[in-house]
Design goal:
homotrimer; transmembrane (chains A, B, C); membrane (chains A, B, C); transmembrane helix (chains A, B, C); cell membrane (chains A, B, C); Glycine transporter domain-containing protein (chains A, B, C)
């Protein structure tokens, strides 16, 4: 079975948009934003990374202007999450896991878009990282949260390692959808371990002599 | 009498730029920014929304790079507001009303620009909202204010309702400048009521059973 | 000796990228970001101003996507600064001076890019200011610092005065690399005096009568 890259990206994209719209709405409700404020935060989080990537790559028209399904998916997901907010909250802190799913998905999408634009491997990895983290960074800035990035967790690093892994698989001749899936799983596993075990990167600074 | 859409947009635009430059300068002075810091905040607030919209729509050259009147209007308005800052302050908290006027004006401009670019109704409404709120959001982020958006006031919602109303008028066959004016007034009235009566949107979450 | 504008811009650019990557990494370490978080802040600070400028001018492909030397310079500079962080810290608060060097360099680059795109003098000065200050502003926003801009120091003003000075030199017939160098020095001197003597701009508001 062969799937067109466009199909895989489209499926992953809607999944990532859905999970990050849920995560963003939960955050917005915690910050007591009103209905449409929360919808807007869901927009920022869900399409902020891809939009940043496409503006940097000069890729127009933007995906969510071309395809209104994004806008409807985000709006309905956010409204639904708001209605059942107290029910969702009961689940054991799902926010971080939805966020982790969006991180993994958007990493793969960013790399694929970079590939489709003929970018070199480092630029494609960078696009994966930007797509993965910019939505969350913008969301946190607008919501005045301490950005996830500043909390010393393996977040951006997970996306970056995933990106490098993708190109290792590519050079090993692994087929498209397998490497997409494996990359997604690797990012999710790294980020998941970081969440569960509070993983941090070591400090690389050479200490002063006492 | 028929006015070209471009003329109406141009007149509204300078009005919106003027009011938001005043509002931004008042905020910047409260935050004790220096002369040119305040001018820059006035730039960010006055052209931030339109610039975001045009970058998203890939509409180049940007209006304020093509037409230097924007830069001069903002600079002179901001300097003038700074010189007479203590005199302005005496007026009964005009900041929010200038901000409301800019909100209403930029909503209409954003929709018109969307229309001119052949955008569908939902995208045009979205462009109205983005043009209306992004300048204020960017201003608040740079000034480290709690964004208006987070203060649970009817702000973004006013722009959105105005946008939907615009397309109702369009389908009812109302002529251009009448629907521009009515949309502007509706946004202003909604936002005005929200300011005066502290209107908030209701929480749509289903409560947990006790 | 005549140097092509492109050569001068390229040399200045790498110098500015280097100094602002060092400054950003020092800030990121103070904020206790992890390794790749600090690298990312170095990216934001070093190419944020130029990227904003190029997006506004619709200048594609972006310089750092076309030329991977930027990415490698920033990454290696940031890692190097992190490894020797405690050694650097011993030096007498170099952070502000590295930042001042980047400010001066990026002002000149922004003006030159504006000139190359055929921008009018005011737009070219604006591009100089944007290139000079946006990287630092974005860096401070992501790091949740009080933006330098808000600290009432001669920062943006130094870039602006430098920009005006550049066009004075241009009209006086001063050759390219001399006016680049003199503009760079003027910005550095103004900013340097502001750092050393705590220069501030006067308040231009007319006082109320008591």
């Amino acid at each position: 079975m062969t799937l067109a890259p466009e199909t895989i990206v489209a499926v992953l994209d809607f999944f990532g948009v859905f999970t990050s719209a849920v995560a963003a709405t939960v955050l917005a409700k915690r910050q007591q934003l009103d209905i449409f404020g929360a919808v807007m935060i869901a927009f920022v989080a869900s399409i902020g990374g891809g939009t940043t990537r496409d503006l940097l790559l000069n890729r127009h028209p933007l995906f969510w202007l071309k395809d209104l399904n994004y806008a409807w998916t985000i709006t309905l997901t956010s409204l639904f999450t708001q209605v059942f907010y107290h029910q969702f909250e009961r689940l054991d802190k799902p926010f971080r896991w939805f966020d982790a799913l969006a991180l993994a998905t958007f990493t793969v999408i960013g790399i694929e878009v970079g590939q489709m634009r003929g970018a070199s491997a480092p630029v494609a990895v960078l696009m994966g990282v930007i797509t993965a983290v910019m939505g969350g960074i913008l969301r946190d800035i607008v919501c005045r949260q301490v950005p996830l990035l500043l909390r010393k967790e393996i977040y951006l690093t997970a996306a970056m390692v995933g990106g490098v892994f993708y190109f290792v698989l590519l050079h090993a001749g692994v087929s498209l959808w397998v490497r997409d899936l494996l990359t997604l799983l690797l990012v999710l596993v790294i980020r998941g371990f970081a969440i569960v075990y509070n993983w941090n990167l070591p400090d690389i600074a050479i200490r002063r002599k006492p």
